[in-house]
Amino acid sequence: MRAVAKYGALATLGSLVLSTLSAAPAGGADFAGTSSEARGTVVAAQRAAAAGITFRTCPKAEMLPAPLTCGTVEVPLDYARPDGERIRLTVSRVKASGRTGAAGGDGKAVETVARQGALVYNPGGPGASSMAFPMAAQMPEWKRIAAAYDIVGYAPRGVGRSAPLSCQDAGDFAKAPTLAPTYPSQSYKRERISRAKAYAQGCARTAGPALRHYTSLNNARDLDVLRAALGEKKLSFMGASYGTYFGALYASLFPSHVRRMVFDSAVDPDPDQIWYRNNLDQSLAFEQRWADFRTWVAKHDATYHLGTTPDAVQRNYEKVRAEVAHRPAGGKVGPGQLHAAMLGAGYYDDYWAMRATALSEFLKGNTKPLIDQATPHPAAAVDNENSNAVYTAVECNDAPWPTDWKVWDRDNTGLAEQAPFETWDNAWMNLPCAYWPAPRQQPVDVRTGPGELPPTLILAAERDAATPYPGALELQRRLAGSVLVTERGAGTHGIAGGPNECVNDHLEAYLLTGKTPGRSAECAPHAEPNPVSMAAEDDRTELRRRLMPSTQL
């Protein structure tokens, strides 16, 4: 699922006999009753365990500072052929510090902590990398966890330098300004159909036969190979957004390999939802979150002067849309770029003050804040195109999609009547799946029985738009023994390690001790943003932004 350009997400094709797929035993001695992909996973994991990962100074291309170190792990392109073509996934790590506090630093006594292994993180997408995530070890919210765990990030298959996938020239993908009509005309729809067909063909042309192997199931299998390469008998994993989906696949396929598992902002794993209906539900949820933003802006009219009601704020937003459609801000910010920037406010309320300031200043004649926030950065074009390519491949490969344009037109036209903010942009993002050239999978029925898994932890904000709250309830129903922590009345996407101390306390207790708060727990919402200027940000805020879950899914 996406939302800005992802489902995320912000995270694919194969004709597999999924009904017979089961996890091979950890030792790999008995292959009876398992699929060829499961056998291939055992072979690849054994090979990775023997090879390990050699961590060295990170390549300049990663732009990661010490103490992060980097390495690679080899996985099969096709798990049914583990001795065939192989690809390398990039991995990053900060080793467990072994202590909390710092003498002469924050005044807290130094405490020695026993190492508990590696904690692997995925921020979602599909198409997002967590190579920068070990930098979180320096943040106060993660210090105790980073004392006990090696913090490990990686780029999934197709992402970054991990056998990168591309479907379109990066310059063409980043072209700006662009339109984003709320109610598209028939001629605009025909144009987008043509573009979707061309994009799908571009993916097939550049990837060739490998295209079918970018799937959520392969992401789950890659995770088990990474576990083995790290020398871990059991996996400790935290996935956010789309990362919760293939994390749940992992839990279903390899329950005996799970040590601790955190699902932050859970995707609805119901096979009937993957992925077409999940995207429709996401568009509906973004309408509610867009209303939350406008309500907050109206409450602070003394600061922004955008109106004292949500409707008045909407009218001023439409004025800005009309102006940039007529005269793009800075020559690059048209309705499409404006919408993408505002969609970020639907993901993270950290952006609310910035976006409101940009709208307010624009209407006063100062276009610079909007230009600064919404102009595409040329330096990011290659990464953004790559991320979008992986997102598309995984979601198109994972499940059947409607192939009749009339179905898309009917469903999205009806939805746009009640949820106009994101509906059609989300549809255009996913429309290549209607014309996808590779075979489709049937999604796995994610499910574990009592006693199959150790306790797992689900974190969810009640008003999250990218991964609507019912998905967390569905995941809890499907993973026996899972525990749900809900941040009531809040809607930020990805709440682990954020500003809510109650959520962080539950996360820390679970990862450090395995303790869970019974069947469920609730946290009051974190404080609403202050209507402060953009200049009030510090390095810590910027680092937290960099480590947020993908804005795709």
**Roughly what is the average pLDDT, rounded to an integer?**
91
Order of helices and strands: HEEEEEEHEHHHEHEHHHHHHHHHEHEHEH
Number of strands: 12
Residues in β-strands, percent:
5-15%
Describe the structure.
It is a single chain. The strands form two sheets. The chain has a ten-stranded mixed beta sheet with strand order 1-2-3-7-6-8-9-10-11-12, with helices on both faces. The chain has a two-stranded antiparallel sheet with strand order 4-5. With 553 residues, the chain is an alpha/beta fold. The chain has 18 helices and twelve strands. 40% of the residues lie in helices and 11% in strands. The N and C termini lie close together (5 Å).
Write a brief structural summary.
The protein is of the alpha/beta class and 553 residues long. The protein has 18 helices and 12 strands. The strands form 2 sheets. A 10-stranded mixed beta sheet has the order 1-2-3-7-6-8-9-10-11-12, with helices on both faces.
Structural features:
40% helix; 10-stranded mixed beta sheet; alpha/beta; two-stranded antiparallel sheet; disordered N terminus; 553 residues; 12 strands; 11% strand
